[in-house]
Amino acid sequence: MPVFILAVFLTSVVLGCGQKEAGKKHTPVTDQTLVIDVRTDREFKSGHIKGAINIPYDDIGARIGDVADDKNRRIVFYCRSGRRSGIAVKTLTGIGYYRVENAGGFEELRKRIKE
């Protein structure tokens, strides 16, 4: 049940505040979607989206293979404001990942969960 709730929540987040790409439709979040918090370890430990893993944005290129070696896997990033998750999206698209999305900032996501 918690995975279903996370999937429903992230679907609304990605559709509501994700980085929009011209002409690209965002598909619903599924169990195969990887949610990555690209903030610092300290920020992650102070609170994060349940089920997310933490890989700081400046390590994402070097460490993504540890969690997602399939470049077709859908990956959703978030950070504090959306800036670092945007950098993570650019980093991964630069190395051949193409199903990557910027879901924006943590505080906004957290508020959506509580609604």
Shape descriptor:
globular
Question: If you compute it from the alpha carbons, what radius of gyration comes out, rounded to the nearest whole angstrom?
Answer: 13 Å
Name the strands of the widest sheet in spatial order.
2-1-3-4
Structural class: alpha/beta
Helix content: 40-55%
Please, what is the average pLDDT?
80
Helical region count?
5
Q: Oligomeric form of this entry?
A: single chain
Residue runs with pLDDT of under 50 for 5 or more positions: 11-28
Distance between the termini: 18 Å
How many beta-strand segments? 4
Order of helices and strands: HEHEHEHEH
Strand content: 5-15%
Largest sheet: 4 strands, parallel
Question: Could you walk me through the main structural features you see in this protein, from its secondary elements to its overall organization?
Answer:
There is one protein chain. The protein has 115 residues and is α/β, with parallel strands linked by helices. The protein has helices spanning 2-17, 41-45, 60-67, 83-94, 106-114; strands at 34-37, 53-54, 75-79, 100-105. Helix 2 links the parallel strand 1 (34-37) and strand 2. The protein starts with a helix and ends with a helix.
Give the structure's gist in a few sentences:
Helix content is 43%, strand content 15%. With 115 residues, the chain is of the alpha/beta class. 34% of the residues are buried.
Topology, please?
Layout: H1 2-17, E1 34-37, H2 41-45, E2 53-54, H3 60-67, E3 75-79, H4 83-94, E4 100-105, H5 106-114
Parallel strand pairs: 1-2, 1-3, 3-4
